[in-house]
Amino acid sequence: MAHARIRWAAAAALAATALLTACSNSEEASTVATTTTPKVLRSTTTADRTAELASATVDGIRLTDGWVKVPPKKDRTAGYFTLRNTGATEDRLTAVVTDVAGRPELHTTQTAGSGAEKMVKVNEIPLPPNQDVALRPGGEHLMLVDLKRELAAGQKVTVELRFASGKKLSAELPVLSPDQAPRSTPGGSAEASAGNGANGHGNGH
Ligand SMILES: [Cu+2]
């Protein structure tokens, strides 16, 4: 119908047709411009899959990429973060204090000859100057044993990290479901790759 009217206008006055054409061209141009918007929306949706990770700093120490896994078992779960000692001398993470767990522990993961992974408690995690030390699935991690309450995705766990230097660093770690967990864990382990599946992270830590 619109075309019919345009033709009628063209028959009536050529100048008018030229104006209408110019008009419809500019409309097309603006349509093209708006069709690029959904791409932006799509990448926003992707970002939603990975919820915002915690970061915090205290003089000389920076925490980034902090999160806690939705407990795979009722009584325990693990927390992960990257620490950077921005000072000039070595420091050590010696303890974590939190009110959500009766026993917060520092663990490392050892792979036995059979290939089975085993978690071992450690007393401290060294932080050499100017290096990132990543606590991550399949490696060193914070173990929250004897959970005092249920932890659901979207909640936050407040932790206070204590260091050999006497420094203390507080952070609020978001609780993430497996499909919200960060995908690209640097040097990711078998467990991290398993997390790429729909229902990874089925095991205990
Ligand atoms: Cu553990």
Automatic annotation (TrEMBL):
Low complexity bias spans: 187-196
The entry's keywords: Signal
Pfam families per the UniProt record, alphabetical: PCuAC (PF04314)
Segments of this protein annotated with the region Disordered: 169-205
Transmembrane segments: none
The keyword Signal is assigned to this record: yes
Keyword Signal in annotation: yes
Signal peptide residue numbers: 1-29
The protein's name in its UniProt record: Copper chaperone PCu(A)C
Species per Swiss-Prot/TrEMBL record: Longimycelium tulufanense
